[in-house]
Amino acid sequence: MHITSERRLDDGVLVREFTLGEIPGTLWTPASAAPAPLILMAHNNGLPKADARLVARARHCAADGYAVATVDAAGCGDRPRSTADEQARADLRRALRAGEPVDEIFESVVGPLVENAVPEWRTTLDALLALPEIGGPVGYSGWLALGIRLAVTEPRIAAAGFFAGGFVPRAQREEARQVTVPLLLLLQWDDEGNPRQRALDLFDAFGTEQKTLHANLGGHTGTPWFEAEDGNRFFGRHLR
Amino acid sequence: MHITSERRLDDGVLVREFTLGEIPGTLWTPASAAPAPLILMAHNNGLPKADARLVARARHCAADGYAVATVDAAGCGDRPRSTADEQARADLRRALRAGEPVDEIFESVVGPLVENAVPEWRTTLDALLALPEIGGPVGYSGWLALGIRLAVTEPRIAAAGFFAGGFVPRAQREEARQVTVPLLLLLQWDDEGNPRQRALDLFDAFGTEQKTLHANLGGHTGTPWFEAEDGNRFFGRHLR
């Protein structure tokens, strides 16, 4: 892990940009010297790690005593995309404009994105847990499809907070029943691009006995800020 | 308002039993001397105010700085029931045992219960707000059908936390869209006696723009304790 820049925020949180081979990442750690529990925070469908909403959540979470890390995994954020990826995304934009069915195109975009992202997140996790300022256990927050895959394949994930507003490939919908860690699923009731019933069906399918759904009125980006606080308390119950 | 007994708990909360005409009630007030916001707490479908789960929630809430009051309104708890009430309840028990449809019988039990309870809760609210140790604003917690009726008819109610696990008469299902105060609806995902879809439809129908649904795995009485804490924080956002 190579630190490329660091700065300290007013609330004492240290922000470090890093690279890990080809993987660019950001790590927020709290002012406290004690090893902090780690939360991996990923944005739905490979949006950039520098997105303002993700950064705001990460800072809030770090100020509350967690180490928070995010990366742009293969094909995510500004990472290069394959010709096939670019073609699938062009198809998606065209279909959305034309009002045509998009499920199969989403499947071809998001399915490989998740498959390729998982090993890079696991590599990142290995590197982060080697840092003295980071303890266990590990939580996961954000991108639903990636989180399902990670929760099923990565035994170090102890709790997961998922945001329902993103396409979930067939493979992850089927894996949902294998998720056995405590989870909190966050749903925007009127998310224009993500049918509510799919999120409710997924909540029903998760295999864990400790699952909570929080739903709020409003569209995709309308999640109220108090849900960030509720998320911290959820992790507080399971990671501390 | 006539105080019939009082005692102080270890955490400083003062518990007073009172009567207001024929209405028996309990009032919990926090140790602090400053006027506290008031929460009216009612048990679904007229269950007794002395029920252990309600008492536990009320104490927790008072220890957190709220004045909490509950009453057994007409026909609720141990209050006398009319011959018609008794007959309807006998019909309900028989139908439940026989596995017959119960919606119409529930309607005949709960509909009048709500109608008769509302004026007694409003009388209680008048008396409570006259006490110097109670300030405004006022929250409501618990019994869904009564809460809908109160939120629609009583302008002093500023926020409402509802528990979905109770029959909601037709009149209140229709009134739901007139509820405009911030609300938190608590749903047990596998509540055997209360179909999940009805609760989701009701959440969808509420007229307020600030509505949040919390759903947890498990049956009617399985609500996790952290929801009591979440409830206090919900009231903290709207009553303080």
Describe it.
The structure is a homodimer of 240-residue chains. Chain A is an alpha/beta fold and 240 residues long. Chain A has one domain (2-79, 117-239): Alpha/Beta hydrolase fold, catalytic domain (Rossmann fold, 3-Layer(aba) Sandwich), CATH 3.40.50. Chain A has seven helices and nine strands; from the N terminus they run ββββαβααβαβαβαβα. In chain A, strands 1-2-3-5-4-6-7-8-9 form a nine-stranded mixed β-sheet, with helices on both faces. In chain A, helix 2 (83-98) crosses helix 3 and helix 3 packs across helix 4 (144-153). The longest helix of chain A is centred in the middle third of the chain and has 27 residues, at 103-129. Strand 9 of chain A pairs antiparallel with strand 9 of chain B, so a sheet runs across the interface.
Keywords:
9 strands, 7 helices, homodimer, Rossmann fold, 9-stranded mixed sheet, 240 residues, alpha/beta
